[in-house]
Structures are given as structure tokens and as C-alpha cells.
Amino acid sequence: MKLYTRMWGDPTAEKSAVLIHGVTSNSLSWTRVGPALAEAGYYVVAPDLRGHGQSEKADGQYALNLMVDDLAESVPLEPTFLIGHSYGGVMGILAVERDVLRPAHLVLEDPVLCLADQELPARLLKNDEATLPRDLAGTMKANPKWNRVDAEGKLNSLAAIDWDHMRQVFSENAPWDLRPSLIDIAQRMPTVLLLPESPSFYVPPDDVATLTAELGEELIIEFPDTGHSIHRDDLDAFLSQLHGWLERQARV
């Protein structure tokens, strides 16, 4: 499926970035990140995954392999770096593992590395459907560190989805365990995990300890006073750490 994409920057730029959002979100998640990266010289492409945003809905057709294959039709195949946030991290890991995308660097922002069963993601979605605010004031109150445009993007994303489709995307694709895949990828490609210091719900301390023991402490960058959406909670720190990590990789 050809996905709807938002783009920032010059398509002829030497550097490029692909930004992949999480479940129930869309490319507006990156509404401040994209322009900032474009200003730094990147051509930036952010797709709406199938069933999200302005991309087509596909009832009964949300298998992980289909969603990953969509990326090959929609974004640069060999970007300078790929960022996957949350469920977008699942897409990023699988796209690299299957050689669908070949980024030079892989950035995973609080990725959903492991789901042991379908019950947890189903419960998380049910809670979101019941409790997430559907107005600007409520969204800003629930996310006091967000910029107004981030809150507006979140409302846009919630208005565009079908919750039954989101269950097909998230809970019906579970279970999965991408920790071995991450270790394999990180051993052959520069890879970093950007995590809230809270700690992360999706990459708990035991996983952090195991991954850093296997791959080194430089795999993890933690962000104090942030939640699951680091790039919306603290954009300046997110960009500073991202650019710093990329610069360190260039010196290796």
C-alpha cells in the first residue's frame, strides 16, 4: 500500500530521515521534529501507517509483514537514519531485519520491544479509547509539557482512527519479542534507544540491564522528566541528544 506521507526539507539533500509514528498516532506526531531536522539539512519523510491518518484503512489486513512492506513503497529506502517511536519502533526493527529499509543508523524511541500476550495491548487500547481526552484543553492538561501543535496533532490522529482497526494493528499482532532482533541489528548497525528515565514501561530496567550488558551502555540514552513521547515532552533535549549521537557515530 502506498502510504500518505508528510515531507520537510529538500528532496535532493544528501542526508535523509524517516520518522515512523506509534499506534493510534500519525505523521503529525513529528510536526515539530520534521521542520527542525529539515533546518539541519535533512530531507525528512514521515508516513501515516495503514489505518492511521490519511492513509487507507485496511480492515482485516494489518499483519506486521504487510505494514512493513508498505514502507518500501512510501519512504526513502536508505535514509541516513530512521526513527521509530513506540509501535513505530516495531516497524523499524522489522523493516531493517527483513532488509525492507536500509538506514545507516537506527533510532528507537521507547519502542514496544516485547509483548507476551494479546491481553496487555488490548487492555491498553481499551483504556486509551475510554480515557484519552478528545478536546484541546484536556489533551494539554494530560500532557503539560507538549506544545499546542503536538496536542492538536494528537487530536487529529484520534479523530482519524477506527478503534477496532487499532486492535488489529496492536493486540492482534501480538505476541512478539524483538529483543533478539534488536541485539542482532545493533551488532551490525549503529543503533540507539531513547528512553524516558521514569523508567520506560515498554523497555523496563531488566531489559535495559540485559541489553546494555550485551551491547554496551552507549546503546541507551535516558531523558529525565519525560514520558513515552520524548520528542513531544522535551524537543530540545531530544534533538540535542540525537544530533550528538549521530556526530559521535560519524567519528567512529
Describe this structure in words.
With about 250 residues, the protein is an alpha/beta fold. The chain has a single domain, classed as Alpha/Beta hydrolase fold, catalytic domain (Rossmann fold). Strands 1-3-2-4-5-8-9 form a seven-stranded mixed sheet. Helix 2 crosses helix 3. The relative contact order is 0.15.
Briefly say what this structure is:
The protein is α/β, with parallel strands linked by helices and 252 residues long.
Topology:
Blueprint: E1 5-8, E2 15-20, H1 33-39, E3 42-47, H2 64-72, E4 81-85, H3 87-97, E5 105-109, E6 114-115, H4 119-131, H5 136-142, H6 148-160, H7 163-169, E7 176-177, H8 179-186, E8 191-196, H9 205-215, E9 220-223, H10 230-233, H11 235-251
Parallel strand pairs: 2-3, 2-4, 4-5, 5-8, 8-9
Antiparallel strand pairs: 1-3, 6-7
Helix pairs in contact: 2-3
